[in-house]
Design brief:
The chain has 202 residues and is α/β, with parallel strands linked by helices. Helix content is 41%, strand content 27%. The protein is built from 10 helices and 7 strands. It has a 7-stranded mixed sheet, sandwiched between helices.
Length: 202
């Protein structure tokens, strides 16, 4: 991914996010210095998945969207996608709504609720980042995934261990690991990230 181009595209978002963070502490003050590298660039690791699997449109759900990662960067980068972010913490959803209004993100919707309370909608792609271990988050995500859809879970170096622990829940929902897409964040030290791609069988 082209770091400089991405950073230029997200200049306004960075400015607005830092204004909100000063009041709401969506991420730590230390992380503010690395907002682009650790949060925005990481969120856009999903570009590697979209390009490889030729995902060009659809309904996306981001579970536990927190301060808006990855749902806001995805909505900015992909205006053709309908992106929904869900989180149970009201102040975080309010902050995302304010950012959405300032950036005029008409393709972004938010829900303030627990994900297990969503009953009447299914999604083409589901994401989660820094929410829970893979087996637990699969219990939330896979029932909401359309047959033939994909769940993309952002994970660290422990991806293989979490996959081993999720075998039973994957079988329960007729899902399988397609692959692990690995990428490195643009930091001084080597910081490897893994995107676990799970498909739900028809």
């Amino acid at each position: 991914m082209d770091k400089l181009k991405i950073k230029a595209d997200f200049t306004k978002y960075i400015e607005v996010f830092l204004q909100k963070n000063a009041k709401l502490n969506l991420i730590s003050k230390n992380d503010e210095k690395l907002l682009f590298e650790k949060h925005i660039y990481d969120s856009l690791g999903i570009k590697l998945f979209f390009e490889k699997y030729n995902i060009t449109a659809g309904d996306i759900l981001d579970i536990g969207c927190g301060g808006g990662f990855p749902c806001v960067p995805i909505a900015i980068e992909y205006p053709e996608f309908n992106v929904t972010g869900i989180d149970s913490i009201r102040k975080k959803i309010n902050a995302i709504n304010e950012i959405k209004e300032e950036l005029m993100l008409t393709n972004l919707t938010t829900i303030c609720d627990r994900v297990e309370n969503i009953k009447n909608k299914k999604f083409d792609v589901i994401t989660s980042r820094a929410v829970a271990d893979l087996s637990k988050i699969c219990e939330y995500a896979l029932p909401l995934l359309k047959a033939g859809g994909y769940f993309a879970a952002y994970k660290s170096r422990k991806a293989q261990e979490e996959i081993r622990n999720a075998i039973k829940v994957l079988a329960k929902y007729n899902a399988k690991i397609d692959e692990i897409i690995t990428y490195t964040l643009p930091l001084d030290e080597v910081f490897e990230r893994n995107l676990i791609i799970i498909s739900k069988q028809p």
